[in-house]
C-alpha cells in the first residue's frame, strides 16, 4: 500500500503540470492511468487511500495560489477537493471488477469533476481535465462536445492506457485497438473544425486601470482604483478625438471598478458619469452594489452617457467564505478572524438573458463565473453575440491563478465560437478570438486600454446546444456501470446463496470470501 500511495501522490503532482504555469497537457493520460492502476485490486474499504493521496498531490500544487488568502485556506481547500478523489478511488476499485471498466471509470472521473464543480456551495471547478487543452489540437473538440465531453475523452485515454498495461494476450490487442480508435475520433474535429462566421463587427475598448500599492489589495485605496478606470477612459476619449484611436462602440471596465455603491456614493457616481460622457459611449461598469443591510451584489452595469445606469448582470457564483459565509449565524459566534472581514453576504444572480450594450447582445461573466458552464451557456443559447468577462484577480496578481483563469477564459471563447473580451483591474486583460488566440493583451500591473474590432456571432455550437446533457449522460453511464459491476461480480447474490445453503445443510454461515466473487487479481 505504501508504494501505491507514493505513486498516486506523484501522479497527482504530475497531473497539476497539465495546467498553467507549466501547461503540459500531454501528461494527462499518464497521470489518469497511474491513478487507475493505483486503485486496481484494492478492497472497497481501502480504495480511498491512494485516491486521497492522488488528490492531495494534485490539489496542493494546482491551488498553491490560494496561499495568498492564507496557508490555512490553501490547505483546507486542497484537502476538501481531495476528498472527491478519495471517493473516486473507492468507485474505481469497484468498477475494476467489470470487463468494461475503462469506460465506466472514465465516466466516473467526469462525474467527480462535475460534483466538485457544483457542490457544495457552488463548488470549485478548478482542475477539470478539459480546462488544460486550450493550446492543443484537442481544443478543436470543444465546440462539438464542450469541456465536459473533452474531459471524458481525456479520462478515457488514461483508462485505456491503464488497460493496455494490465491486459494480457487478446485483451491487450483489444485495448490497443480501443485506444487507437479514441485517437482517431479525437482527430475528427481537427479535420472538421467548427468555424465562426461573424455577421458584423464592432469596436470594444477594454480598460485595465491597475491597483495602487502592492497591487494585491483591491480595498487598499478603492477610490483610486475607480479613478484609475476614469483616467484611462478619459485619456482614451482624448486619443479618439485626436484620431489616434478609433471610437469604440462601448467600453468594458473590470470587476470592482468601484468597491462602493455608485448609486449611494455621489463621488463615485460623478466619476463614472464623467468618464461615460467623455467617451460618449456606454461603459459596462463592474460595481459592488448594496443589497440591504446584510447583503451586497457584484454587478456589471451598463452605464449610458445619456440615460445613466441601465441593464445589469449579477455575479452568479460568489466565492464561498470569500464573498459570503454559509451558516453565518453559527460561524459569527466563533469570531474567526478572516471570516469577520466578510461583513455582508454577496447574493447570487440568476440572470439567463444577455445584456444589451450599444445594441449588441452581450453575455457577461464576473471573475470565477467564467469557470462555470451554466451562465455562459444560458446567455449564448439566448442570443449573446459577444462574451465579456469582468474580473479583479488583484488578490492573486502575484500568483499563477491569473494564468489559469485566463486559460479557462480562452477555452470559453473556443467552446462557444464567440469573440471574448476580458477586462481585469491589473491582469490579465485581453481580447480573444473564437479559435482561442489572443489578439491583444495588457501586461499585468500596468495601466492600459485595448481597442479592438471584434466579430458578432449568432451561430450556436453543438456544445452550447447540448448544455448540461453530456454531464447527465455521464452520470447515467456511471450509474449503469456500477449496477453492471455489482451484478456481474455477484456479491449480494452469492452471499445470500451461501447463507441459504448453510441453513439447508444445518451448518453455520460460511460466507464466500470477496475474492471468490471477482476475477483473479481484481481484489487484493
Explain this structure to me?
Helix content is 45%, strand content 15%. The protein is of the alpha/beta class. Helix 1 runs parallel beside helix 3 (48-62), helix 5 (101-118) crosses helix 14 and helix 8 (222-242) runs parallel beside helix 9. The longest helix has 25 residues, at 71-95. It folds into 3 domains: 2-194 and 474-484; 200-314 and 348-460, 4-Layer Sandwich (Nitrilase/N-carbamoyl-D-aminoacid amidohydrolase); 490-517, no CATH class. Strand 1 (200-208), helix 8 and strand 2 (250-252) form a beta-alpha-beta unit.
Write the layout of secondary structure elements.
Blueprint: H1 2-16, H2 28-39, H3 48-62, H4 71-95, H5 101-118, H6 142-166, H7 170-191, E1 200-208, H8 222-242, E2 250-252, H9 266-279, E3 283-290, E4 295-304, E5 308-314, H10 328-331, E6 345-346, E7 355-357, E8 360-366, H11 373-381, E9 386-391, H12 401-416, E10 420-424, E11 429-432, E12 438-442, E13 448-456, H13 462-466, H14 469-489, H15 491-505
Parallel strand pairs: 1-2, 2-3, 4-6, 8-9, 9-10
Antiparallel strand pairs: 1-13, 3-4, 4-5, 7-8, 10-11, 11-12
